[in-house]
Write a structure and sequence with these properties.
2 domains; 6 helices; 2 strands; mainly alpha; 144 residues
Length: 144
């Protein structure tokens, strides 16, 4: 999401932007660099909302290089993620996973990923699949 020039000059945005920089210790949250130009990145787009009204957990500090890389890779990553989800789940299950991921409020990305994988591993369809694979393996081992 790109804010308009007028939004960028708004005092409410300037205050929130500084708050995000301070929260992230004036460092890129991706590479840790602090000696470069920093930007506040909108991790999600919320239609019809002003930049200063975004939830703070949807904003992150990135350096120019990491921001460019994020923009470059985002479409590909989303496409791969969606295709992987669609390969294994029906739409309603994907919606449940997305809703669950949206409710996770952990600040540490590896924990979020671990929680998402844990949730995925508990889905009935995957549990059924894993049980079938395990039973096949038992039959195979028995036949040796």
């Amino acid at each position: 999401m790109k804010a308009s020039l007028q939004d960028c000059k708004d005092l409410r945005w300037k205050k929130l932007r500084l708050k995000i920089f301070e929260r992230d210790d004036w460092c890129c949250t991706n590479c840790g660099d602090s000696g470069v130009d920093l930007f506040v990145h909108f991790k999600i787009f919320i239609p019809d909302i002003k930049p200063w009204d975004y939830p703070e957990d949807s904003l992150v500090t990135l350096c120019e290089s990491c921001l460019a890389e994020e923009r470059k890779l985002l479409a590909t990553a989303l496409s791969l993620f969606c295709n992987a989800a669609r390969k294994h789940f029906l739409s309603v299950e994907i919606d449940d996973i997305a809703t669950s991921l949206d409710m996770i409020k952990l600040p540490d990305l590896p924990e979020v990923v671990a929680s998402a994988i844990s949730l995925w591993l508990r889905t009935p369809r995957l549990v059924e699949f894993m049980v079938k694979i395990y039973l096949r393996k038992l039959k195979y081992d028995e036949g040796k």
